[in-house]
Amino acid sequence: MFDINNILRENIKKLVPYSSARDEFQGEASVYLDANENAFGSPLDTNYNRYPDPLQYAVKLRLSEIKGVPARNIFLGNGSDEAIDILFRSFCNPGVDNVIIVPPTYGMYEVSANINDVALKRVPLTAEYQLDLDGIAEAIDKHTKMIFICSPNNPTGNSINRADVETLLANFKGLVVVDEAYINFSRQKTFIQELTEYANLVVLQTLSKAWGLAGLRVGMAFASEEIIEVMNKVKPPYNINEASQQLALEALQNVDQVNAWIKETLAQRDKLVLALRNFDFVLDIYPSDANFILVKTTDAKGIYNYLVSHGIIVRDRSKVTLCEGALRITIGTPQENETLIETLKTFK
């Protein structure tokens, strides 16, 4: 059985979080003289002189409606990267504990581990880009606190077999962190629906991809109430600024627009795959559940440099484990995708 107290750092158990002015008073008042703010306003059309809601309650209520999960099970971070870092700082003892990643995968898991002095165990995906469950089982020891799984996976684009993730959730006594940054583009259902089944599940999502709010830096973590309470205790007091909260809340009213963009992105992905298959230098295009495709080529570096010279930027992933010779290409607008194809026609 999972017990959060068995993996939580002792100093975090004892931590008394910073109590901000907005924690001590909640509600509406006519005169605020408690937080040493500038009472005269801001030198902008919109006033941002007051500190924001430290727990972003209005945004969480709207997300609760969209995601079908209580607001108390939602953490908001300055991008998903903040949530990842807080998980490390809350559950991993520096110089003692370790986490497992399954490369090729999102690079911030490794960066956060290095920043927090937490050992990293790598269990590469199989040739089919699926979990090596036997390898993961062998890698787990008494100091393994978390397993990170990106699904749909970055940079490969495929979804991870759901039953394999459930096997880990049922048998691992640490946290299983499922990063669903690209879930809006996937045929698979979100693991948020499994929060009541697995106390050790943390699901990461973001408003940066399908919602088109990468510049606002709003990431989400969904987990049990006790895990969310720990994350809220460790985070900085005002980690989501007022402008991001207001704009996110406004954007979250436009579900139909986002769904239309998702539909168009998937249609453009199919068209781009068909067009790329006509090039001799394209060896393979891997199945994708994301808004990008991984393309295996005969000359990734040459193609990358050629596209850069024409003002087109893709990601060269050819030095990443199991992605040799591959480029990661984001699905653009119809015009951008057409420009890409026409430019590639002149590559020799």
TrEMBL record:
Keyword annotations from UniProtKB, A to Z: Amino-acid biosynthesis, Aminotransferase, Histidine biosynthesis, Pyridoxal phosphate, Transferase
Presence of keyword Heme: no
Cofactor(s) needed by this chain: pyridoxal 5'-phosphate
E.C. number: 2.6.1.9
Domain Aminotransferase class I/classII large: 47-344
Keyword Transferase set for record: yes
NCBIfam families noted in UniProt: hisC
Listed name of the protein: Histidinol-phosphate aminotransferase
Organism name: Mucilaginibacter yixingensis
